[in-house]
Amino acid sequence: MKFELPNFSNILIGKSLKTEELKSEKFNVLWGLPIMSSDAISSVAYAGEEILLILIPVMGIMSYRYMLYASLCIVFLLFMLTFSYRQTIDAYPGGGGSYIVAKDNLGTTAGLVAGASLTIDYILTVAVSASAGTAAITSAVPHLLEHKVGITLLLILVLVIGNLKGIRESSKVFGIPTYLFIISILFMIIWGIIRVHFLGYIPKLAYKIPKVSGSITLFLFLRAFAAGCTALTGIEAVSNGVPNFKEPSQKHAKIVLTLLSFIVLLMFGGISYLATIYHAVPNSEVTVVAQISGQIFNGNIIFYLIQIATAIILIMAGNTSFAGLPLLLAIMAKDGYAPRQFTKRGKRLGYSNGIITLGILSSMLVVIFKGDTHYLLALYAVGVFISFTLSQWGMFRRWTKSKKQGWRHKAFINGLGAVLTFTTTIIIGITRFKHGAWVVFICIPLIVYVMGKIKIHYSEVAKQLKLSAEDLQMPKEINFKRQKRYVIVPIDTLNKSFLKALNYARTISDNIIIFHVSVDNEATEKLLKKWHEYDVDIPIVVKKSPYRNIVGPLVKFIESEEYAAGSKDTVTVVLPQFVVTKWWGNILHNQTAVFIKTMLLRRRNIAIITIPYIIDED
Amino acid sequence: MKFELPNFSNILIGKSLKTEELKSEKFNVLWGLPIMSSDAISSVAYAGEEILLILIPVMGIMSYRYMLYASLCIVFLLFMLTFSYRQTIDAYPGGGGSYIVAKDNLGTTAGLVAGASLTIDYILTVAVSASAGTAAITSAVPHLLEHKVGITLLLILVLVIGNLKGIRESSKVFGIPTYLFIISILFMIIWGIIRVHFLGYIPKLAYKIPKVSGSITLFLFLRAFAAGCTALTGIEAVSNGVPNFKEPSQKHAKIVLTLLSFIVLLMFGGISYLATIYHAVPNSEVTVVAQISGQIFNGNIIFYLIQIATAIILIMAGNTSFAGLPLLLAIMAKDGYAPRQFTKRGKRLGYSNGIITLGILSSMLVVIFKGDTHYLLALYAVGVFISFTLSQWGMFRRWTKSKKQGWRHKAFINGLGAVLTFTTTIIIGITRFKHGAWVVFICIPLIVYVMGKIKIHYSEVAKQLKLSAEDLQMPKEINFKRQKRYVIVPIDTLNKSFLKALNYARTISDNIIIFHVSVDNEATEKLLKKWHEYDVDIPIVVKKSPYRNIVGPLVKFIESEEYAAGSKDTVTVVLPQFVVTKWWGNILHNQTAVFIKTMLLRRRNIAIITIPYIIDED
After folding, report:
1. Is the ipTM of this complex over 0.85?
2. Which of A168, A240, B323, B449 is most open to solvent, judged by the fewest CB atoms within 10 Å of its CB?
């Protein structure tokens, strides 16, 4: 709607676009890779750090070895997921998000659980990515550390405005930072290894490793593994976005997914290895990646380049949620599970309500958690893996139900995927339960419940509004006796605005009553005197209101015996409303008419006529 | 209005009161003194401290002597003001606030300047008193120091709720703490003097006095004097509240005013003297009064009693503003200089809008200045003295104009008062200009400007609504040709809600057009098919909206050549609106009807009929 936005929105958001202009650019492999996978690739910027954060306080220097083991497990999981999702791409050329796959194959409830998990994840992705992007900036420029919440909120605001503008227009540009990030991190890994192993550099211990020597336990290892699983978030974006690829889109999507896995393998493995030989120690001021690159490049220009690339790719990862969640909400809203406003496109064709909602909720998370990535990450991976599991399990059921050629092989792969992701969900749920995962376990059922309620509401509304065959056979001619119409015109003071309303009322009925609520005897007497001077043959009813309530007496009168309208008669209330031309004018007037309307609208047999009276002030 | 408040307001605020229950308790001298003068008396809790705060950093130990001199000047000013205001009480038995006195005798602009100064002062009084009350508490319980802003805001909230409840019911209770404060401070003064002069106690130097020995300059002395003038705030409350006294009310008010002066003299002088002999040094943690009483009573129970009494009287001083500002705003609103909502009494008969406004604005000041009394006090006294000056000068003009018996004597007293207060205003304005007084010098003209604009607005509205003799001679019978009425019923989907609206429309006109804005070709075709099945002989107009704007095409159509309504014909738009019974239901529906109404109401010849359709969900 063009009118509800003030004019400066044109400057900020851009001019409105026609519905016909809706088209999205299609990508080949070269551009599809960086654009569809920034979320997945960017998570290597924090996943290794999360593992060390669990291990180091317990095991000290021994942590690095187990970090490598945990990383290996995660990389194994990554390849299993890649195989599974390649099958989803084949089965859902229109895009197979968890919500759709689960709803299709496992039923509504499973679909809603997947939808709820995804919703939480998208919101967390924005909060996490923006916070981690800020961490990359503040690691390079420590002065800014005290403003980290402010910077994070600013980044989110930029994303909101950018998406309201509809940034798809120039989306190829967004591929470049991903490549910059990939190349610079790979370069760091290669140079970091060469420096130590071939040039004989001995890394300094910049941060103290605690002198502890706890031994590894299964639980500790699983905790570390669970923490590292954040590296796998964003994988499903590719299978979700199949229609965004050029034809043959499924083939392109599968190539991208496979490439993505190898890139994550190289980067995640490489960073884990570097952390080991450079003895990076997670702390709240400098990220692990910054510690490593700071040593490798001695804080020269390449160090800053890596920090910039990291910050940008993290922000872009947040941006993928701004494409994902509004679309998911629109799909769920079309099914009746989310407020219908999410289906409306804004002036620039983006789903603006979803974009704004996402911006607000993620900002709230940032404020609540004071922009600290670690706390947010504890909530993060559970939801992702719940939706992975449902999606894989849905695919498994799909094959076992269809029994088409080769279904056993396919069912095995997705079934294995389901078992692995389910196991991981359990591991994450248990090991991180008290660190925040419990919040997610409360939120998901809550969201599912609300979605169910919304569906019931819309169904009920649709049922009650639906025309029966009988309704459609309604009398083509209505015999209306004009004399029978009940019309009430409330009066406060006798002025032009009231007279305009009264005159309108007189054109539709001969059965008018003027109604006055008296809160001040003096004012009422003055009014009555004036009214009698005016001398029109219309009765005036005065009701005292000792509690200075204006609406109550009117409603009471309409429903009373005294007023003879039967319960089947429509009572028409004509309200004069003066309209001031200056925006601040409304502050200066009691909005009594608005309250009267709100109250009266709750009654069945009422019609409210508003007669504007415009006050010119120019 | 009873209906817009949720039910828990009954618990918080209490049940509604009838207008007839409006009566205020009348006081004799015994209760009038503590109740009307808590603001004035409480300011001795911080005035002496403000003087020392100016002098000590420059003069060190020599400050105490000049503090006494400054205090003497202030006490002299106090007695002059007492004489002057006794005359105001005589002249204004209905209560002579600066706004009324200045408006009466010096004209509207002077009245508005006084009104603006008073408004600022009342807001500052709340902020200052609540902050100083918190300081009294935190001086006794230093743990609470880190929560001082929170405590201050809580105190303001208590005042707001208390005043919304209408605390006048039990107002005599509020006299007791004032007496407690007066007695305990006087006891402290007497015992403090006895201990040093008769019992040979040698006060310890608890806080270091800076080793500086700057000499007194006129400017420094005037700055100290200006700072101490905060002791005189609240004096005019008595002359303002003459009607609150028992008959003979003027006589009682004058006695109270005189007594008040002597009490302030004793307390202010006493505290200044004690500060001298006990070497109190202002700092940001312990107030001067607390330093003195802490030494005198060695931190025993009486020390805590004094702190409690101080805190309570300061809070009550804040409370006087909650009686004063809402009343002032109501008076100014009746004159048309403030939004009319300020004249409405809430459910408990208090001017609730004024009370809430005061609470919000003073809370904002507390947050901005982080609950620091000293910064707030720098803004404080200017406004008070501007209103003193205008009030005194107004009284002077009153006598010189009336020239009734004895006018010379009276004019001399008020004229002298005016000269002294004006001089003080200048002194305060200059010496405290850069410390904050400049804010007041910007705000007062701004507020006066806004008040002027409001008056113009109300006058214009009244002028345009006023009925001329001609209007009152309007046709007693209107010949209305029913066929000529232009009615438009917008349609989105053909459902029961729409049909209800259409059927209403058909009862008032034969000239109906159904109007559809198409944003989705498919949906439009479906609608048209259904409409033709329904087969009623009413034309349907379809307009495409490429920018998905619903209201624009409708407005354009109404104004177009295509639609034949002349500019003098009223176009009636009938809007179906469905009403959901659950509160959250509205979130789930586009409020398109509301936007349409808002846009259409800005047009002159329009009538909007809203037909509610209620969706039952129980």
Report:
1. no
2. B449
